[in-house]
Structures are given as C-alpha cells and as structure tokens.
Amino acid sequence: MSLSGALVPSTVRPWCALRSSCHRFPCQQTYFRRTATGRSSLRPTAAGRGFGATTVEEATDAPPVDKLEWRAPLSILKYPDPRLRAANGRITVFDHVLEKFAADLFDCMYRGDDGVGLAAPQVGVNVRLMVFNETGKRGAKEELVLVNPKIVSTNKQNSWYEEGCLSFPKIFADVERPTQVKVKAQALDGSKFTVTLTGFNARIFQHEYDHLQGVLYHDRMTKDILTGILPKLQRLERDFESQYPHVTFRKAA
Ligand SMILES: [Zn+2]
C-alpha cells in the first residue's frame, strides 16, 4: 500500500478519526519531538506544491467559532460534499464540549475503514481541529489532537506515499509531501505548543491539515495519477448528484 512502508504497519492505510483530550494523551512527550516555542513567522501552507494542486491561502485569519454543534454519532462526509471545501473557523472556546467533540471524532475515526486521522470538516463541522492515531487502533500508541494548527515550516525532502481518505472510500493513490513539518497548535485545554513531526505522523498531519484548508488529497496528485483514479472520483460525483441534485460542488475534472 505504501511507497514508504517502513513507516507504518502494512495493515494500516491512511486515514482519518480520534478521541480524547490532549491532557489525556501522553502523546507529544513520546511521539512528537518537542521544539522550543518561538515566534517563527508562518509560511504559506504547502497546498499548491503538487501537480494539479489547488492553491489555498493559510487560514491565519479564520473566523472565530465559539459554539460547536454536531449530531452524534458522527458520520463522515463523502467527496464531493461541498462542506469539504468550506472555510474552517478558528476554535476559541476550550471546554468540555470541545473535549466531547474530539472524543466523538475519535470514535468516528475508529469506526472507519482503517482510519488513522480525521479532520472536523469531514464530519460537517467546519472548525480547525484534527485527531489522529498512526496505528488506527484505539488504545495503541498515542491519540493526538491538534486545535487551530498552523504550519511553521517544512523540510525540503519529500517522499511519495499511497494515501487514502475516509471521505474517498477505497480510493488510494500516491501523493508527494515533505517528510517533516514543524507545527504550532493548541491542546484541548487551549495551551499552545510547537512540535516537529516526522515520518508517518508528518504525513497524517499534512493530509488532515489540508482538510482544514479545504484541500483534498487528489488536489495534490500528478496529472497522470489523478487520471488513474478519475473514474472512481466521477462515480462518487454521480452518486452525490443523484442524492443531492440541487447542490453544487467542485468536480475533479
Ligand atoms: Zn482525508
């Protein structure tokens, strides 16, 4: 399944879902290599680097969101639902409601098909929150939650990897991304931290971060790779059109 399979057990396919609050995650201590928190200037998102990519501005001015509303159990939106392309607001309230939402995201992720990460817009809640667990298995290793994440920098070395997405059932294709990313984010209690992610965690983060930018993984595929999965994308588009004939969406081609 992967071009860099040493990063992850062969049974795990990327992506998407999580639960818990960061104070319950021993996570960053062992899985994230902490870096000194500094006033680094933010770089633009990596979106737009790939062939055929869609350029989306870093949402540093994302509108604040002070109330979260969702219906449990959460269900995952499928491409091409336009909510996957909508702007995502900055979370401003850090309370038990946010913790419950993160927990529900994890539950949803673990119910998914080998999901290892999930971003809030994938369940129709357009806020800047992601959860992930590189093992895709509840109770295995750490569950990570990043609130209002921002990319500080990426390294210059890229790698290719066969990605999937819970919003694109059973569609897998290669995507090129930097192998390391430095991130600023907040925990569920609102505390700020800076981490440097490498390996599979770096890839999961960048995939989920794209969701927060309204960018989907096929935006980053080369023209040839995108052409290879286009029939599957167009099948999803036809399914959506038949279910929601009056809803407009962006087509893959
Ligand atoms: Zn995804």
Give keywords:
6-stranded antiparallel beta sheet, alpha+beta, Peptide Deformylase, disordered N terminus, binds zinc ion, two-stranded parallel ribbon, 10 strands, globular, 253 residues
Number of strands: 10
Radius of gyration from the CA trace? 17 Å
* CATH homologous superfamily identity: Peptide deformylase
Strand content: 15-25%
GO cellular component, one term: chloroplast
GO biological process, one term: translation
Subcellular location: Plastid, Chloroplast
Function: Removes the formyl group from the N-terminal Met of newly synthesized proteins.
Structural overview:
The structure is a single chain. It is built from four helices and ten strands. It is α+β, with helices and mostly antiparallel strands and 253 residues long. The chain has a single domain (9-243), classed as Alpha-Beta Complex (Peptide Deformylase), CATH 3.90.45. The strands form three sheets. Strands 1-10-9-6-5-4 form a six-stranded antiparallel sheet, with helices on both faces. A two-stranded parallel ribbon has the order 2-3. The chain has a two-stranded antiparallel sheet with strand order 7-8. Strand 7 and strand 8 (168-178) form a beta hairpin. The longest helix has 21 residues, at 223-243. The protein starts with 26 loop residues before the first helix and ends in a 10-residue tail after the last helix. Residues 1-59 have low confidence and may be disordered. The structure holds zinc ion. Residues 15-16, 165-167, 207, 211 line the site of zinc ion (ZN). Belongs to the polypeptide deformylase family. One of its GO terms (cellular component) is chloroplast. It is an enzyme of class 3 (hydrolase). Its EC number is 3.5.1.88.
